[in-house]
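Weekly sync, protein design subgroup
Attendees: M.S., D.O., the rotation student, P.L. (late)

Item 1: inverse folding check
M.S. brought a backbone from last month's batch and wanted to see whether the design step gives back something sensible before we order anything. D.O. pointed out we never logged the input encoding, so this time it goes straight into the notes. Structure tokens as presented (290 positions):
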């Protein structure tokens, strides 16, 4: 493919803005962290509903109560996982999330009872998958933020550290997998994403672990073995997350999930790896380091 200066400029500028926004949201304070992932949560849901509607035309017929109710239900689930780390006017946001979650369940069901007859269990299955794929993942990201601030093998560290390690691991893995794959990649990794190779995938994961561990040693001084394991989990399942979203796009017959980021696609395109990596990192942190 010939080099296109205009396309490169657009992609580079978008990438710079993306990194600035991400780092600002991650590092400023706990409220910027919540605001960042709130925007990402709803952005992912909007694109997911569109993708599933292309895969299953019947999903386009869900009622507005179902469409917007499931997004709010998912947001309630996300807030529920804040684990008391947030409160507003003396009210814990995890309790608000629980109430929102419970309130939206009947809204979604009753909305479809009124507007979609007969009820189609398959449409609810699509939405339940979205809750697991999107809302649970970002809920567990909020949980990682709160878990970072308690005593564990990482020692007491700011809340953003574990999420930052996960995100950095994925960014480095993606970059290094592309570079290694371009240089020495020969063996196809998956039919879902023909450009991925085993050489690039393995090389990207190894370099992600090395780079993140070295950065952690320099910046944090925390348990480097645990950092390395988290980086490995993020790299491996991040790659699986990329393949999962690629499969959804292939079924939907689209190149990108959205166009919010010129030259880079949409929310799901940017956060597909993180969506799958986050739950598995959370499982490791919760069960093996607490």
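Designed sequence read out in the meeting:
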């Amino acid at each position: 493919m010939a080099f296109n200066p205009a396309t490169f400029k657009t992609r580079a500028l978008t990438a710079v803005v993306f990194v600035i926004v991400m780092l600002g949201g991650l590092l400023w304070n706990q409220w910027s962290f919540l605001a960042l992932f709130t925007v990402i949560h709803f952005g992912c849901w909007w694109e997911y509903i569109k993708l599933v509607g292309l895969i299953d035309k019947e999903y386009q017929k869900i009622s507005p109560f179902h469409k917007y109710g499931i997004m709010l239900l998912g947001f309630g689930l996300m807030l529920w996982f804040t684990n008391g780390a947030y409160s507003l006017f003396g009210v814990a946001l995890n309790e608000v999330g629980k109430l929102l979650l419970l309130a939206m369940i009947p809204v979604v069901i009753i909305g479809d009872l009124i507007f979609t007859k007969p009820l189609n269990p398959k449409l609810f299955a699509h939405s339940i998958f979205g809750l697991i794929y999107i809302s649970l993942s970002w809920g567990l990201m909020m949980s990682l933020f709160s878990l970072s601030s308690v005593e564990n093998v990482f020692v007491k560290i700011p809340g953003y550290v574990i999420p930052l390690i996960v995100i950095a691991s994925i960014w480095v893995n993606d970059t290094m997998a592309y570079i290694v794959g371009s240089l020495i990649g020969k063996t196809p990794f998956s039919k879902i994403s023909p450009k991925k190779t085993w050489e690039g995938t393995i090389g990207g994961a190894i370099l992600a672990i090395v780079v993140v561990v070295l950065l952690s040693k320099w910046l944090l001084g925390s348990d480097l073995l645990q950092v390395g394991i988290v980086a490995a989990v993020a790299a491996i399942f991040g790659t699986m997350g990329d393949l999962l979203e690629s499969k959804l796009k292939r079924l939907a017959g689209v190149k990108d999930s959205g166009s919010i980021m010129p030259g880079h696609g949409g929310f799901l395109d940017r956060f597909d790896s993180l969506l799958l990596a986050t739950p598995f990192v959370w499982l490791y942190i919760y069960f093996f380091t607490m």
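Discussion: The chain has a mean pLDDT of 88. The first helix runs from residue 5 to 27.
Action: P.L. to compare against the previous round before Friday.
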